[in-house]
Amino acid sequence: MARAMEDKVVIVSGAGSVGEGWGNGKAAAVLYAREGARVLAVDRNLQAAQATRDVILSEGGQCQVLAADVVNKVDIQAMVAAALDHFGRIDVLHNNVGIAEVGGPVEADEESWHRVIAVNQTSIFLTCKYVLPVMEKQRKGAIVNISSLAALRWVGFPYAAYTASKAAILALTKNIAMQYAPLGIRANCVLPGLMDTPMIREPLKAAYGGNVDDMRRQRDAQCPMGHMGDAWDVAHAALFLASDAARYVTGVDLIVDGGLSLKCV
Predict the structure, then answer these.
(1) Distance CA 218, CA 228 (A)
(2) What is the DSSP letter of 41?
(3) How much is the pTM?
(4) Would you state the pLDDT for residue 265?
């Protein structure tokens, strides 16, 4: 049986995990490789990217790594060059990089606002800016941007910069989807709900009283299915949108939240 990403080349930004366990980017990179992709695992933390590569290589997959800061256009240009040097093409761009900082307009300082917008929003503008010309020459490609349910819903505490940046990703993705549809390039978003990943532990635990176990219990209780999702739930959604199984799907916001967005309270 053919694998979904056989011989495709995938760039995953934010491919390392920020702590123990499986982050969204790490799980996505590993899943793409399991489905036959050749992966360029990109992360600001080279050791984190290497840990992802080690998993892929141990399973017989193909992966190269690159240290890059996705808010730096020189690093992004180097990322594109590395993918072409290693693999000769770019079939999928998976934008996973993101940070979360709690605070509304009054509580958050300007530095926090600019930092979150740069990492979550400007990074996607830059990666698309330099990857799209490659895909245009190929007349084919897929972009998967990881947004958040917080782009659409209040998730329990002030999250001004995070929600603004994640909402902007939805609009940017739709704009790209429309502009590039005639050129064979698709662009879609995945919107995770409450997920149990390393990223949530330090940035968010203060909002839940400072105890990670209490945070997990409270977030599990919020979800209609009785538990949070995990990085593999996000990865499988991304895999579908990146694969040819979704060849006629573009401009979509795919919510992965265990039904949380169905609640009115």
Answers:
(1) 10
(2) E
(3) 0.95
(4) 61
Mean per-residue pLDDT, 256-265: 90
Give the model confidence (pLDDT) of 68-127 as tens digits.
999 999 999 999 999 999 999 999 999 999 998 989 999 999 999 999 999 999 999 999
For the chain, what is the HEC assignment?
CCCCCCCCEEEEECCCCCCCCCCHHHHHHHHHHHCCCEEEEEECCHHHHHHHHHHHHHCCCEEEEEECCCCCHHHHHHHHHHHHHHHCCCCEEEECCCCCCCECCCCCCHHHHHHHHHHHHHHHHHHHHHHHHHHHHHCCEEEEEECCHHHCCCCCCCEHHHHHHHHHHHHHHHHHHHHHHHHCEEEEEEEECCECCHHHHHHHHHHHCCCHHHHHHHHHHHCCCCCCECHHHHHHHHHHHHCHHHCCCCCCEEEECCCHHHCCC
**Which residues lie closer than 8 Å to 122 by C-beta, 6 or more apart?**
71
Rg of the chain taking only CA atoms, in angstroms = 17
Nearest of 180, 88, 104 to residue 139 by alpha carbon: 180
22 burial level (CB within 10 Å; 0-12, 13-18, 19+): buried
Active-site residues, by number, are 162
Mean of the per-residue pLDDT values of the chain: 95
pLDDT at 253 over 80: yes
Helix (H) / strand (E) containing 9: strand 9-13
Q: Give kind and range of the element (H or E) at residue 63.
A: strand 62-67
| Mean pLDDT computed over 48-69 | 98
pLDDT value for 205:
66
CB count within 10 Å of CB 6 equals 12
